[in-house]
Amino acid sequence: MDKKKAPKHSSYLVFGFSVFTALFLEIVNFPAEIEMFRPDFLALVLIYFAFFDPQRINIGLAWICGLFLDLLTGAPLAINALICASQVFIIHTQFRRFSNYVIYQQAIIIGLVNIIAHVVAYWLEHLLGAGNYHVNFIGTAIATTIAWMFIALLLKFLCKKFAVVPFGAEQED
């Protein structure tokens, strides 16, 4: 008997919804006590999809999403784009087997890369004259590390739920 296979969808389906949600979470105001521990939701979504579907979601798309975040937050143009694209770039080039690591190892790597990207971006903001001297890199990195474990599992669930397949996997039957 020939079983009907479920239709496979492009990764843009879940990616678009996830980026929209991440941008919303980036611009929403949190209480002051929690604000210093806000994870980089957009960077986490971009990192996940850069490894899930590297042919469609790449550093260029991370740069464009970062520019949208710059426009939404009023940050100096291309600072958030630099942060998002550099995190995707570092993890993609230096950790080729990132998806094979256990989730807590992935979280530690993301936390370290996050703090490196934020320090470099802070330095560039300072050179541009727009530096914020009340920045907590450690709190953001810790929150991003912890958030990765939940966001990666959530996005994996959504990709399975909506039958999302990476580019090139549609042809394989």
UniProtKB/TrEMBL annotation:
GO-annotated cellular components: plasma membrane
Cellular localization per UniProt = Cell inner membrane; Cell membrane
TM ranges are 12-32, 61-90, 102-124, 136-155
GO biological processes: regulation of cell shape
Listed A to Z, the keywords are: Cell inner membrane, Cell membrane, Cell shape, Membrane, Transmembrane, Transmembrane helix
Q: How does it sit in the membrane?
A: Multi-pass membrane protein
Q: What is its main location?
A: membrane
Record bears the keyword Oxidoreductase: no
Tell me which family the UniProt entry assigns to this protein. Answer: Belongs to the MreD family.
What job does the chain carry out? Answer: Involved in formation of the rod shape of the cell. May also contribute to regulation of formation of penicillin-binding proteins.
Q: Which PANTHER family match?
A: ROD SHAPE-DETERMINING PROTEIN MRED
Q: Which NCBIfam families has this protein been placed in? A: shape_MreD (TIGR03426)
Q: What is this protein called?
A: Rod shape-determining protein MreD
Lineage, opening ranks: Bacteria, Pseudomonadati, Pseudomonadota, Gammaproteobacteria, Aeromonadales
